[in-house]
Design a protein that fits this description.
Length: 342
């Protein structure tokens, strides 16, 4: 384990903290390790049955994902593609995420589209600009022609072919899920087979917890976010050898000029989505897929979103809607979604 703290008291404090996390996070039985921290402006929590601290390996995974896919990193592969740097050849991570994003884009009829970047910026949810409620139709029209994942591809040489030179990719809606998948791969390479990985609400679970039961995860109630006092969830899901991702309105929506704006943009209209869907929680074999489908649901009519998930053989989902009063919830699930009492 690497310590950035130099004083002895610092080392003792760090050791005490780690010990507290081990007992708090992992329950009784087995040897369990818990690693927590911050990445991409959100918290991550990793627990696994094992003895070795893999904190540095985890940091290595995050760095690698960042160097490939982060639009907030000017030197990343994706940022260079966005700047039309023709020397870029897509690496493994870019190929995997690009491929899955293209697939979910197709399955969602274009509702999920990582080329919404310029629209995200235009509405002030991205790296540039501040949130606004009023954007002119002509501004939207000038950006829309660059949007269209399904007209982009990676050629045999690994060059990313964009719809137009102004097309920009923004993999924010899938990258955290992908990082969970990559963290899982790293744990497996190190012989770990029972683990629960969570990055900002996106989750991968494998094997059994130290008590010999499947890892259990609470599905958030979008009307009472987890940091609110007395928050309670909608129910519990067992996550065994699969992934769970949630996209929600409550955490990221903003007020601008007196209106509430969603951070999900409808790529077909160019406007922030105003639908009754408050959150979507999706189970899938891989977390990047769950993450992409969850975001897709937020930009779709709830019935079409549910039908899309139902068509996928290994995907289940739960969609939370506001009723007409806006104060109570309606929960829709695919036929195979098992929600247990908390
Ligand atoms: P969170 O980051 O809160 O977990 P999501 O996984 O749903 O939420 O990702 C939301 C991000 O995806 C937005 O901040 C934006 O950058 C991007 N985005 C917005 N609309 C779309 C869309 N229709 N398709 C793909 N990505 C989108
Ligand atoms: Mg997502």
């Amino acid at each position: 384990m690497r310590h950035s703290l130099s004083s002895l008291s610092g080392l003792i404090a760090a050791a005490a903290l780690e010990a507290a996390l081990l007992s708090a996070g992992c329950g009784r039985g087995g040897t369990c390790v818990s690693v927590e921290g911050d990445v991409w402006h959100t918290a991550y929590h990793v627990k696994y049955v094992g003895a070795e601290s893999l904190r540095d390996s985890l940091a290595g995974v995050f760095e690698e994902v960042d160097a490939a896919l982060s639009v907030f990193n000017a030197g990343s592969e994706i940022s260079r593609v966005n700047r039309n740097d023709t020397s870029v050849r897509a690496g493994r991570m870019m190929r995997e995420v690009f491929g899955d994003a293209l697939r979910v884009s197709g399955k969602s009829g274009g509702a999920f589209d990582p080329t919404v970047g310029p629209l995200v910026d235009l509405w002030g949810f991205g790296r540039r600009g501040t949130a606004r409620a009023l954007v002119s139709q002509s501004a939207v029209d000038s950006v829309l022609p660059a949007v269209g994942m399904r007209e982009c591809r990676i050629d045999r040489e690994g060059r990313v072919i964009k719809k137009s030179l102004s097309t920009e990719f923004d993999f924010s809606a899938i990258a955290k899920g992908y990082a969970c998948d990559e963290a899982a791969r790293m744990l497996e390479r190190n012989g770990v087979t029972s683990y629960l990985i969570e990055i900002g609400g996106e989750i991968v679970g494998a094997g059994l917890n130290p008590e010999g039961r499947p890892w259990r995860v609470m599905v958030e109630n979008p009307l009472s976010p987890p940091d609110s006092v007395g928050a309670s969830g909608l129910g519990v899901v067992e996550v065994r050898d699969k992934a769970l991702a949630t996209s929600g309105r409550s955490r990221r929506q903003r007020k601008a000029d007196g209106r509430t704006l969603s951070h999900i943009i409808n790529p077909l209209t160019g406007y922030p989505e105003v639908s009754s869907v408050l959150s979507a929680t999706v189970l899938a074999p891989r977390c990047m897929t769950a993450d992409a489908f969850a975001t897709a649901c937020m930009a779709m009519h709830p019935d079409s979103a549910l039908a899309m998930l139902e068509r996928e053989p290994e995907v289940e989902g739960l969609i939370v809607l506001a009723d007409s009063t806006g104060f109570s919830l309606r929960v829709l699930t695919t036929s195979g979604f098992r929600l247990l009492a908390g």
